[in-house]
Amino acid sequence: MKNGNAAMKNGMENMTKAYERFTGFGKENVEAYMQSATAFAKAFERINGEVFSFSKQQVEDGVAAFKAVTGSKSLHEAWELQSDFAKSALDAYVAHATKVNDLVMDAAKQAGEPLTARFTALAEVAKDVRPVYPFGKAAE
User: Fold this and answer.
1) 69 in a structural domain
2) What predicted TM-score, i.e. pTM, was given to this entire model?
3) Residue 135 in domain
4) End-to-end CA distance of the chain
5) Inter-residue contact 11 to 134 (CB < 8 Å)
6) What is the pLDDT of residues 49-102, one digit of tens each?
7) Torsion of CA 99, 100, 102, 108, to 10 degrees
C-alpha cells in the first residue's frame, strides 16, 4: 500500500508539472508565430524588390534591343541583334529564377525555424504528459 501511495503521489506530481509546462505554451507559441511571420514578411519584401528590379531591367533591355533592331542596316544584322537579345534575355531569366528560388527556400527555412522549435518543444512536453500507470512498480 505504501508503494502504491508513493507511486500515485509521484505520478500526480509529474502530471501536474507537465500540465503547468504545457499550459505555458501559449505565450511562447505566439512569440514563435510572430517571429515566423516577421521573417516571412521581410523575405517577401526582398523577393518583391528583386522581381521588381529584374522586371524593370528587362523592360529597359527590351527597349534597347528594339531600338537596335529597328536601327539595323540589314535583315541579317537585325536577325543577329534579335538572336543575341533573346539569348541574353533567356540567360537573365534563368539566373533570376534561380535567385528567386534561393530566396524563397531561404525564406521558408527562416520562417519555419521558430515553428519547428515550438513543435519540438511540444513533442517534449507531450512525452512528459503521456499517461503513466502509477501502480506499475507497486504491482511488481
Assistant:
1) yes
2) 0.65
3) no
4) 12
5) yes
6) 999 999 999 999 999 999 999 999 999 999 999 999 999 999 999 999 999 999
7) 170
